[in-house]
Amino acid sequence: MAARGLVQSMATLLLKSVRCSCLLRLSEPTLLNTVACRFLSWTPRSIKRLSKENIGLVNNLVNLGVDVQSARKRQPGVLKKMITHEDGLIGFLQAKGASKDFVAGIISRYPRSITRTVEHLEKKWEIWHGILKSDSEILKVLERSPEAFFRSSNNANLEKNVTFLSSLGLTPSDLARLLAKAPRTFSNRMELNQQMVDYLHDVHVSLGGENAEEFVKLILTQNIFVLIQSVKRVKANIEFLQTSLRLSDKELLNLLQGIGADILDLCHEYIKRNFRHIQLKLLPLGCTDDQINSFILRYPAMLYLSPKNFTNKIDCLLKTGVEVEQILERPRVLDVSISTMASRIARLHQIGYNFQSFGVGLLDLSKTRFEVKFEKLQ
DNA sequence: TATACCGGGCTCTGCCATCCCG
DNA sequence: CGGGATGGCAGAGCCCGGTATA
Description:
Helix content is about 70%, strand content about 0%. By secondary structure, the chain is mainly alpha-helical.
């Protein structure tokens, strides 16, 4: 990588001297080609590609501390552009409190950011600021997800999204949460967001609900990632929940506007796989289909657990002497991390706690409640 | 007073595919 | 044909405490 940068620098130096002295009549690409062939045995193809890059731009980026290699890998076309605005971008973001390294990182991760004009950035920032209120919060999002901020050049669409989401009854703080945690929502085309809203609306109506607006708002606030999923995925998940758990329309509706919303954004294959895995794990332990279904229904977030994690937790409990029935009765015990579960079990063992007689209720208490309880038991 | 029940708070990107336009 | 804009995908949990209830 350093070698390539070196070649580029050397080529630039040579070009400068060529321009000054006019001793050579080589074209820039040819000269670069020559330099590259001399110092590194590159293929003609890579030289051809490189020769199309804007050397001045590439050098500028190198000087700015941008990881050009990764930028090239991500969006090679940007490096070939004749007009870019990296200096404007730097000035703009630094004025907002970003460091030089921060901006270099942004460009390395999302090169197209340098194609945005300062006017565009100002407008977009203004709209974001209308939702997030402080520059530092916006910078935090940018750092996490440069793409979400820079991918679209369509500020009008961004404004349409704000209007649209507000019209659904989402409050300013709902919007702030959405923008902070699921910024892609706002770079989606408004029509795409509308499609999801329409779909959720239809689901509610077809399940016999009577307040679709409220339902949509509930889902979108309960699970802020729904709008960055495809309708296909959400639909598949909703249908899967109904058929696999054998729910009536009303039961499904209740599930969706409650704890079920949490898992709507899961990769569909993942839900299916985990569901099968839960059955595979519990059936041999003597559980019936109905028991398993109601177990999942009472704590659908278990579908979120990887098969390995699920198995580990169940095995950990069984090894401790807990009966399967005790687990079925208290699905929320799977809520605790495996490490918390194991360390609590160990501590309780030390003081002679009998899980079979007293149950697993202690395992999923909050930390403070657990400590209080533990003190008393001691 | 202890436990059960329940809802809420945190929390999502970076890559690839496809379409469309100049 | 290349590149910008956009859509879609895989991947993966834990903790807390208010309030009802026994």
